[in-house]
Amino acid sequence: MTAKNVEEPTDLRGAGLKAMRDALPGVFPDGDIDLRDGRLGEELVEIGLTSVWGSLWAREGLGPRDRSLVTLGILIALGAETELRTHFRIGVTNGLTRDEIAEVIYHAAGYAGFPAATAARNAAREALPD
């Protein structure tokens, strides 16, 4: 058990695969998959699968929609445009509207700065074309 009796999944890889498939429907095939590509740093995706998707996204405590809001705010503040493009799509899958995504960007401008918000807006426009 962890904080406030929120249980963490015991099979972090399996929980991570489920969470990723739920967030990105149709992107990952069914069954066990190998996310390594044989190139430098190939295990980074596997590490993210267990530590981020399995340990965090699969936890109880916050629903996927709330996790998307938090994640978008953090990624905007970090200026992580590549990840933002994916997470804007995940946010829509998790129930965020385009107007709510715009509000997250506007709100981030006050805390993370206008350049970060502008970069996030551009990433959102790429990820979610009109």
Automatic annotation (TrEMBL):
Domain Carboxymuconolactone decarboxylase-like: 53-126
Name this protein carries in UniProt: Carboxymuconolactone decarboxylase family protein
Species, as recorded: Streptomyces hyaluromycini
